[in-house]
Amino acid sequence: MTVTYTSRVATARFGGFSQLLLLWRGSIYKLLYRELLLFLAAYLGLSLAYRFLLSEAQKRLFEKLVLYCDKSANLIPVSFVLGFYVALVLERWWGQFRSVPAPDGLMVAVAGNVHGADARGRILRRTLMRYGSLAALLVLRAVSTAVYKRFPTTDHLVEAGFLTREERRRLEGLHSPYNKFWVPCAWFGALAGQARREGRVRDDCALKLLMEELNRFRGHCSLLFHYDWISVPLVYTQVVTIAVYTFFVTCLIGRQFLDPAQGYAGHELDLGVPVFTLLQFFFYVGWLKVAEQLINPFGEDDDDFETNTLIDRNFQVSMLAVDELYGEVPALERDRYWDAASPRAPYTAAAAPLRQPAFRGSAFDVALAKEEMQFQPLEDIGETLGDTLEPPPRPPPGTFTRRFSLLRRKNSAGSEGGLGPEPPLGARPAPAAPGDGDSLGGDTAVLLGDAPGGSSSSHDHWLLHPSANDIV
Q: What's the N-to-C CA distance of the chain in angstroms?
């Protein structure tokens, strides 16, 4: 049911999208023409009643109502609420498509890790993949009307080969009010453990891989089921629908053409048919109908997902991968580029004009003059940059060592003397004198070169960035 048109727009050209406007299946015309005809009929009915059925006094009253509705229609935030709603629905639609379970990863894990070319190995692999297909089918049967019409009962699942009679008895004998798509996953895990005990799965790493793929597959089934369970909040859908329909009911009256002889502002021309109001209806109501179609893509609309086709493809491919293709590896032989140091695939005459040179990076297109590509002496660069490359001034020999030793002795004296008696509660501590052992005080100033009478400017830089000799 999906309408595919990607091949028509594969190459952008003049009027590329215009050819899509004539398609009917899945088009906005097919989705909207009933509402558009109803709106146009109601508009023309009011217009004819105004022109031919109302008296002069009634016309004046109707004209006041038209002016009031035309002014009030702008108070309804249609674009705001509708835009956010459609964006939410579109994101949800894509998320539902990505949550449809695909058995490709599971079938590769089963085919590569459940060994045995005999009948026992074959039935193990086929049964494991049939359990996976059954779990996906039970979920799709619960969310898609097209799948439910195809498999309405478990008898149809038995007849179609997804379920045996013994498995149906066990499935129906499990008393639970919830969807039982997880039961085949439990069977899969138990059967994989049995294959491990039989040696068909050769190590625990292979069993772990099988269970990881199973959990990933089951997670997609669960996510799809929860998408069907948890919908867009009803109040949001109601607000958007009421806003759109209220707006156009107001426009049905407010966009009427009035008698030009009455001199109303904006009503100097009487066209009879509101062309731009119809276009506005086409865009806004069409936008709402798009959201209505995408909010549940598992129905029977033209653009809904092909769930039955997915079931057929997944079941057939999974069985082929674990049975017909098991152990089937083509004979190894040298490829045609065996002796080529730089192999290149050929081009047909139709594809040759499309060949492009290899992209090496956008900076490779930068052009430089020959003299700009010459290295410059570092001395010239240093003179140009000023003092940024000049080394910082070094202090007198031994200065840093003496000051650091002084600071260490002061701190040692403070730690040996202790902190002294604790001052009484509420008393203000006496200011520490410069050089006291329990405070850096003036020693810090000496270390940083800020002591009175000293010159700190000559030592600030080398103290922050000392050389290796100074530190030693």
A: 81
Cα gap 168→155, rounded to integer Å: 8
Residue 421: the pLDDT is: 47
Residues 271-275: contacts with CB within 8 Å, 24+ apart? Answer: 272/47, 273/44, 274/43
Q: What is the pLDDT of residue 438?
A: 43
| C-alpha torsion 400→401→406→411, nearest 10 | 100
Which residues lie below 8 Å from residue 418, measured CB to CB, with a gap of 6+? none
| Long-range Cβ contact pairs of 116-119 (< 8 A, separation 24 or more) | 116/200, 117/326, 117/327
On whether the CB atoms of residues 19 and 8 are closer than 8 A, the answer is yes
Largest CA distance in the chain: 113
Q: Which residues contact 445 (CB under 8 A, 6 or more apart)?
A: 434, 451
- pLDDT number for residue 469: 54
Cα(377)–Cα(388) distance, integer angstroms: 16
Say how far apart CA 284 and CA 73 lie, in whole Å. 14
Q: According to DSSP H, which parts of 260-387 are helical? A: 275-294, 307-319, 378-385
Q: What is the pLDDT of residues 233-266, one digit of tens each?
A: 999 999 999 999 999 999 999 999 998 988 898 8
DSSP helix, strand, coil percent of the chain (3-state; round to 5)? 65, 0, 35
Inform me whether the pLDDT recorded for 465 exceeds 70: no
Separation between Cα atoms, residue 136 and residue 134, nearest integer Å: 5
- What pLDDT, in 10s, does the model give residues 161-174? 999 999 999 999 99
Residues 439-463: tens digit of each pLDDT: 444 444 443 444 444 444 445 554 5
Query: Is residue 76 within 8 Å of 246, Cβ to Cβ?
Result: yes
Name the 3-class secondary structure at 308: helix
CA distance 225 to 179: 9
* Rg from Cα positions in the chain: 41
